[in-house]
Design a protein that fits this description.
This protein has 358 residues and is an alpha/beta fold. 28% of the residues lie in helices and 23% in strands. A hairpin with a 4-residue loop joins strand 9 and strand 10. It binds guanosine-5'-diphosphate and magnesium ion.
Amino acid sequence: MTSPAPSAPATPPTRSVPITVLCGFLGAGKTTLLNHLLTQAGGLKVAVIVNEFGAVNVDASLVVRTDEQTIELSNGCICCTLRGDLLYAVDELLRTRDLDAILIESTGIGEPLPIAQSFCLTPEELELAPEAGQPELPNLLGRVHVDAMVTVVDSAQFFTLWNRTDEIPGDDFGRGFGELLAEQIEFADLVVLNKLDLAAAEDVQSLRELVRITNPRARVLEATRGRLEVAEVLNVGLFDMDAASQLDAWVAELEKEHTPESETYGLGTHIYRAARPFDPERLHAMLAGGLPHSVIRSKGWVNLGDGVATLWNHTGRQLALEQAGTWHRPEDAFSEVVFIGRDLDSPALDRLLGGALA
Ligand SMILES: Nc1nc2c(ncn2[C@@H]2O[C@H](COP(=O)(O)OP(=O)(O)O)[C@@H](O)[C@H]2O)c(=O)[nH]1
Ligand SMILES: [Mg+2]
């Protein structure tokens, strides 16, 4: 005799709905990709959240109308001021709809990390509190998960933007274009090199190499007008918060002794190291003259002999030196800067930096 089969639970276990976040600079092709995915989604029930920075929600009006509803969050950024609204919006979707996926288009200047965190932490951990008269902030843990952070790149304009010397208008953090583009690439699980039809072949090649060096764990896809298979972008299960938060994984990787300093790909890397501190004035004078244009990206630590650990973060034509902490033992302070570029002249870089030491 067989025992009776266990009866089905009264309420099926709640499924966690995958969230795909599209990041990438203004005009990169996020809405185009999103529309393509919606029209190709077949039977998948996909809800869309579009975040537009300006007062007029242009992007939401450009999203193709399907049966699925589009939620528009405007006049702020879901990575900061609209974080609470994002939680409410997702909660409402989960309570009212049966969904297979949620697709979020971030603003062009949105930062990927805090958006991803919104789905990995409780409202308390996010240090969010409801505004006066607003309901309790919903806890989304276990009900949704980030499937992939996708960064769409305009392959034709990328290096022009990267090399701009001005700051991004309207950006509260005073970031430069290169800094934002680097952040978006280095945090992504999936990088879509879009606008292949407009891009020069060598720019596409440089982009592939830049992603491979600065974010080796990212999957890279190439597209024109976002025409990718749905299965390549949705439900890919690529997100990994721990790996993604290690923004400087590439610096750590290149610092490993086994990494040859020769050309790994078409782009080369070079590491400058010094135990002797820099002379702050000489360093600033040297930097005022600019780094060689062959250097695309550089990052590392500099020792100015003041006990402070100073972060060197350079993209394109902009370099930021930021006090990021103190050395545990000032006598252990060192300088180590990783350079990425094409046809780097390593001895010239060593001479340039060496000339600024105290
Ligand atoms: N030629 C070309 N144009 C594209 C491509 N992808 C998007 N576009 C156009 O670029 C503009 C900006 O695209 P959009 O998706 O709105 O960018 P978003 O700001 O990232 O949402 C639109 O006019 C698109 O039609 C592409 O691969 N090739
Ligand atoms: Mg858009």
